[in-house]
Backbone:
């Protein structure tokens, strides 16, 4: 009945390397990548003084598979409430579920995912009084890509590591292969990162002077 929360050792961070809690004034962003099998979780702190960001925590949660849908959703609500108590985030950002999934089982996949997303979003609103920010997966990948091409799911861990200037903390299987949960954690980091990038003030382009415009007109 109980869900399993996996907390990698990465959460025990050295402040000289990842000074997430060293800021006296900071904003905490909680990023969530939600599915019915694994929920990726990340927290990023942004200094209100310098604007510097630091990854403070990354982990994943395995929602329970046993029990009826209502029992499972109760566990998911309890998990969400616990997250909010642990991290006290200023903003919660959730990767919005896709209304259409090419090559998937359609409604059988989308409806349970929508229920999980809505349950978690509702819990956030009930506990904090704030709506969670919902971000489309295409928007997220646009903000975190490091080149011109769209990122594949397998490329996201290294992309977020590039932005944060860290080595990605991959979860490994007993056979020494990358565990699939690593990609859920990477997606959760990407959600928080994309939000931070989307709210950054855009640089103001200098306006052309009137004299310069008149000169161009007179020469034409």
Residues:
């Amino acid at each position: 009945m109980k869900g399993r929360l996996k907390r990698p050792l990465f959460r025990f961070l050295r402040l000289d390397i990842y000074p997430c809690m060293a800021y006296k004034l900071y904003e905490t962003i909680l990023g969530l990548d939600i599915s019915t099998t694994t929920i990726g979780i990340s927290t990023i702190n942004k200094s209100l003084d310098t604007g510097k960001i630091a990854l403070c925590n990354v982990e994943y949660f395995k929602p329970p598979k046993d029990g009826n849908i209502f029992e499972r959703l109760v566990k998911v609500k309890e998990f969400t409430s616990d997250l909010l108590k642990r991290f006290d985030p200023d903003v919660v950002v959730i990767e919005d579920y896709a209304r259409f999934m090419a090559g998937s089982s359609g409604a059988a996949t989308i409806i349970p995912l929508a229920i999980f997303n809505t349950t978690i979003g509702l819990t956030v609103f009930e506990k904090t009084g704030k709506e969670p920010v919902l971000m489309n997966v295409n928007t997220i990948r646009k903000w975190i890509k490091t080149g011109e091409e769209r990122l594949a799911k397998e490329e996201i861990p290294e992309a977020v590591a590039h932005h944060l200037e860290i080595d990605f903390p991959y979860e490994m299987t007993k056979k020494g292969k990358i565990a699939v949960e690593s990609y859920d954690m990477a997606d959760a980091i990407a959600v928080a990162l994309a939000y931070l990038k989307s709210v950054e003030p855009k640089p103001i382009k200098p306006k052309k002077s009137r004299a310069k415009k008149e000169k161009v007109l007179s020469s034409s």
